[in-house]
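Our consortium's second objective concerns turning raw sequence data into structural hypotheses that experimental partners can test. To show how far this objective has progressed, the report includes one record in full. It was chosen at random from the queue rather than selected for favorable results. The single chain below, 174 residues long, was entered without modification.
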Amino acid sequence: VAMVAGAASASWSMLPHCRGNILQPLLIDSASAARFRRSEFSVRDLALLAGAFAKTGIVSEDLVGVLNDRTQDLERINDLSNRDICYFLWAASQVESWSEEPFAVANVLEVLRRDPSSFSSHDLSTLAQALVRMGDLGHAPLERVLDEAFRRQLLGFAPRDRAQLLAALARAGS
């Protein structure tokens, strides 16, 4: 289901004539599947679903409810990979109404709890990009992410990741 939702979101910009009658209903159905069969969805599946919805700008209360419910289980938040946290926060930063949802807050707190050196260069770049868009909620973890990136002196960062990190830094300073 998550892969199909990802394909639908990837097709979104290329097939505008299919948005209303094919792609959007497919995404809404995938959120409903997550709601009614949540035990069959891994954290990665939910992260990918959140990303698919964020890419299209579609808001689904079903999906937000599932994401919020999953974060209520504090043991599961520890099971999140760094990449999953990045997906969730990137999605929360793209959909304005998601940035203060419990799942977003829990992921921000998890970034604060984790050692920033455990994140890959790409993950630090993605986090910086997401956290700068989250306003006050993202301020403290953004400082830690930027400190870690500059501690590494941007070594090992791909050019695109460097550009995204510097853009986040510029946006944070304005």
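The partners drew two points from this record. The mean pLDDT is 89. The two ends are 40 Å apart (CA to CA). Both points have been shared with the crystallography group to help prioritize constructs.
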